[in-house]
């Protein structure tokens, strides 16, 4: 995927769900993975020409795995001129050494988001951007159907009352396959996940299932995504037609 195509998808999401307003200070949550680094490129590129001016910062919640080195990410942020913050935590130690959690994903996500949001507020940001893409949205819908019995997926934009923060997901129209292509084309400095259960989660199950369904029924993933966009899901903001 070319940078121009990434910017086009990002602009579409930002415009249709009114994610960015004049004077916003947006923190990009950087895990070190391909998705968050692609989002950093996308918002940095958008910043150059978007009619509403906004500030950009980046922040990483370091879970405490000794093998994780964010030096290359730091250098990328310096190259792009984006302020970068790393929050040191003991989340990995708490989950796997102290609590020995057999199913840590939910608690890990809660702790990561808590640490991220606190740092974002300290940085003076009013918005935080998550790197969820189209595949994440469809996977979440399937997981919600299977394990909660409801048709749901996370919103493109939501407001956190307690933190007084707005969460935005500017890559919602980007396919994961395109992110992988962008990663290779731009040689993104990906920091490999050290989580011991990475690849063995319910989300991975949903990802594999969608891949199989889409192989047997070409286009089914896109149709599921369209159903989500048109599904009047509670909490989703109204969609404004994208006019250029």
Structural class: alpha/beta
| CATH class identity | Alpha Beta
The topology string of helices and strands comes to: HEHEHEHHEHEEHHH
**Number of structurally distinct domains:** 1
Spatial strand arrangement across the major sheet: 3-2-1-4-6-5
List low-confidence stretches: none
Q: What level of helicity do the residues show?
A: 40-55%
Overall mean confidence score, pLDDT: 92
CATH architecture: 3-Layer(aba) Sandwich
Could you give the count of β-strands? 6
Round the Cα radius of gyration to an integer and report it: 18 Å
- The rounded distance between the terminal residues' Cα atoms is 21 Å
Beta-strand residue fraction: 5-15%
Biggest beta sheet summary: 6 strands, mixed
CATH superfamily: HUPs
Molecular shape: globular
For this structure, the CATH topology is Rossmann fold
| Total number of helices | 9
Domain tRNA(Ile)-lysidine/2-thiocytidine synthase N-terminal: 26-188
GO biological process, one term: tRNA processing
Protein name: tRNA 2-thiocytidine(32) synthetase TtcA
Pfam families: ATP_bind_3
Describe this structure as you would to a colleague.
It is built from 9 helices and 6 strands. By secondary structure, it is of the alpha/beta class. It has a single domain (3-134, 155-196), classed as 3-Layer(aba) Sandwich (Rossmann fold), CATH 3.40.50.620. It has a 6-stranded mixed beta sheet, sandwiched between helices. A hairpin with a 4-residue loop joins strand 5 (157-160) and strand 6. The longest helix is centred in the middle third of the chain and has 18 residues, at 105-122. It is globular. The chain starts with a helix and ends in a 15-residue tail after the last helix. One of its GO terms (molecular function) is transferase activity. Keywords: Transferase. Residues 26-188 form the tRNA(Ile)-lysidine/2-thiocytidine synthase N-terminal domain. InterPro entries: Rossmann-like_a/b/a_fold, TilS/TtcA_N, tRNA_thiolation_TtcA_Ctu1. Pfam families: ATP_bind_3.
